[in-house]
Amino acid sequence: MPQKEASLPTYSPEEEKRIIRNADGVPVGIRPDNRWTPARIATWVVITALGVLGWWMLAIVRGEHVNTIWFVVTAVCTYAIGYRFYALYIQRRIMRPDDTNATPAERINNGRDFDPTHRVVLYGHHFAAIAGAGPLVGPVLAAQMGYLPGTLWIIIGVLVAGAVQDMLVLFFSMRRGGRSLGQMATDEIGKIGGIVATVVVFVMLMIVLAVLAMVCVNALAASPWGVFSVGMTIPIAIGMGLWLRFVQPGKITQVSFVGFGLLIAVIIGGRWVAESSFGHYLHLSPTALVWAMIIYGFLAAVLPVWVLLTPRDYLSTFMKVGTIAMLAIAIVVVRPDIHVPAVTVWASRPDGPVFSGSLFPFLFVTIACGALSGFHAMISSGTTPKLIEKERQTRFIGYGGMLMESFVAIMALVAALSVDQGVYYAMNSSLAATGGTVEGAVAFVNNLGLTGVHLTPDQLTSVAQQVGEHSVVSRTGGAPTLAVGLAGIMHQWFGGPAMMSFWYHFAIMFEALFILTSVDAGTRVARFMLSDALGNLHPRFREANWKPGSYLTTGLMVAGWGSILLLGVTDPLGGINTFFPLFGVANQLLAAIALAVCLTIFARRGRTWTLLIIAVPLAFTAVVTITGSFLKIFSPDPKVGYWANHNRYADALRDGLTELGGVKGTAAMEAVVRNTAVQTTLSVIFLACALVVIAMCVWQAIRAVLAGGGADTEDPPVQSEIYAPAGMSATASEKELVKQWNDYYTEHPEADLRGGSH
């Protein structure tokens, strides 16, 4: 390599103490300045005090209502403390990043899957990829149990479990050439356990992707506005990718403003397009949207990441973070009160009208992605480790990205809580319960016996008129409720009642965009997984540049989740009813497997009590999810147990009945029987395979601890020859070093990583 240091200025002795140089003396990193100053001490004292006050107002003070501003204050302050102290502690004790090591993106850098990506762009991709339906839908449904259980799990759970998993999986995968979770399991526990892990992870991922796509299809079906706005993000993203690649490499500020401006333009223009004669062509059926998503998923997974995937996810992040930030500001400005109890009666009962099951364990399965999500481990061992520039960026992208998703979940919970309780239950109760009519919904909700809830037909009619819908009764799935809540808060800050309809449809489109970015990244991750697995049989599948292998594995993955998706959207009872419970169980079992693999990897380093950082969330997740799986399989209560519900409808059919529990018609009842059989069978397979993998990982971890360590499965280190800051905002020292590197690249363009992102 050229002696870059000859082109760079020298440093003072004090500055030199913080410069990290590789073996050739080239500066490739800067040690962080963690000295405590009076200003820093005062700042963290204030943050801690506000956080304690927030928790006091939410968890201790119990009045008739609580102001939503405390949710924002509590979440932000707690996240800041967790990121600054706990994440940094884990980084020092477990990860120990070394910026003299080249990441897979720098080392392989094929311009397709491995490509050093600007940390801000990569943060956008990672956040957009992990933030799917879970942080939007789960908290809305969990509002049934009150505001406190969901708030505690979302905020505390993400600090000690979700963000820890995401950061560690990302780091361990990066140190192993960007290997998938299944391949890492194979390396740690052997071929048999690895095969079981790969199969179960593969099947679970197909279910997760199908459910994510199903929510997106349901949101975009018969919505020209949404189809146009979401569809236009594709050409905008391609333009951004080409511009960053060939016109102005690394100049993300300019292209960000242009991309954001175009995004706002298509969102606003989407309403005009939908109302024009052209809107007729965008009025797509669910089946047509399925095929459109299948084609898009294939293209997004085979094209170079810089063409579509990373710029589109980065662009989507503007809208995701922007919308959530606007909602948070609106909450601070409007300060609406919520009149929902801290803990409702449904927390201890299995017959909740929104979803069945008591607080333990079903709250922790329902709220998945906002606190802990196994799907994130797929992204953290899929696309992101192949794109990260420097090892010290792992905390910002892995831990910080998950904190942002958790904040999304808190905002979704607040939006749901802000909706009148009667309206909330009318929207989220099933058609079988309400009959799909205003009168039926009013009668059902008022018969629940909830204190302070008296729903009237005028309330439901008025809400429907305000948001521009014919009806809001039994609009299940969480997304419509979130849209109503967001519209109810936003119109008080901007636009007034006349803007309710705009904000509602804006939120629906926002949710669809939110979810779609997880589908495209997940498809690429699924391709990586299959390539790793087939690579054990035919080594060429692991060659990143072998296009036939990429096309074949991508096609198989798309066909897998696309088939499930097609069955779901054509299901007579609605596919979401069949697959969403499986989504929750599969997602959390994936998290347990990911944490178990991390436990084994870390145990091989010979550590002891610090293993508790991983072991505690692993134990909690395993107990919760295994308990939930057993109840869903074996509970005699038809509202909870799959088999119990299956037998109930099967017996009714044998008795010649054509209607039961609000399900009318022989075909519909047969669908219930078929769907519950599918649910039970897959749940048994998931549970059995997950137990095998977790048990084998724990056993290997115990053996490693007793032996004082084990075999190191990391790739041999390769010397880094590039530099990039660690966090979102570069420090003064980091900015100076970046400037020096940019000056060097100007003089020596041949040394730049293909225009990369510096």
Describe this structure in words.
The chain has 758 residues and is mainly alpha-helical. It folds into 2 domains: 68 residues, no CATH class; 547 residues, Amino acid/polyamine transporter I. The chain contains 28 helices and 6 strands. The strands form 3 sheets. The chain has a two-stranded antiparallel sheet. Strands 3-4 form a two-stranded antiparallel sheet. The chain has a two-stranded antiparallel ribbon with strand order 5-6. A hairpin with a 5-residue loop joins strand 1 and strand 2. Helix 6 runs parallel beside helix 16 and helix 7 crosses helix 25. It is globular and about 80 Å long. The N terminus and C terminus are likely disordered.
Question: What are the defining features of this structure?
Answer:
758 residues, mainly alpha, Amino acid/polyamine transporter I, 28 helices, 6 strands, 67% helix, globular, disordered C terminus
**Strands, count:** 6
CATH architecture of the largest domain: Up-down Bundle
Spatial gap, N to C terminus: 18 Å
Described by the principal axes of the CA atoms, the overall outline is globular
The main pleated sheet reads as: 2 strands, antiparallel
Total domains:
2
Q: What level of helicity do the residues show?
A: 55-70%
Quick recap:
This protein is mainly alpha-helical. Helix content is 67%, strand content 2%.
Q: What is the topology?
A:
Layout: H1 13-16, E1 19-21, E2 27-30, H2 38-60, E3 66-67, H3 69-95, H4 104-107, H5 119-130, H6 134-142, H7 147-174, H8 181-189, H9 191-220, H10 224-247, H11 252-275, H12 286-302, H13 309-334, E4 337-338, H14 359-366, H15 374-380, H16 394-418, H17 421-428, H18 431-434, H19 438-446, H20 457-466, H21 479-493, H22 500-535, H23 547-569, H24 575-603, H25 612-634, H26 642-654, E5 659-660, E6 663-664, H27 666-707, H28 732-747
Helix pairs in contact: 2-3, 3-7, 3-16, 5-13, 5-16, 5-22, 6-16, 7-15, 7-16, 7-24, 7-25, 8-9, 8-24, 9-12, 9-22, 9-23, 9-24, 9-27, 10-11, 10-13, 10-22, 12-22, 12-23, 13-16, 13-21, 13-22, 14-25, 15-24, 16-21, 17-19, 21-22, 22-23, 23-24, 24-25, 24-27, 25-27, 26-27
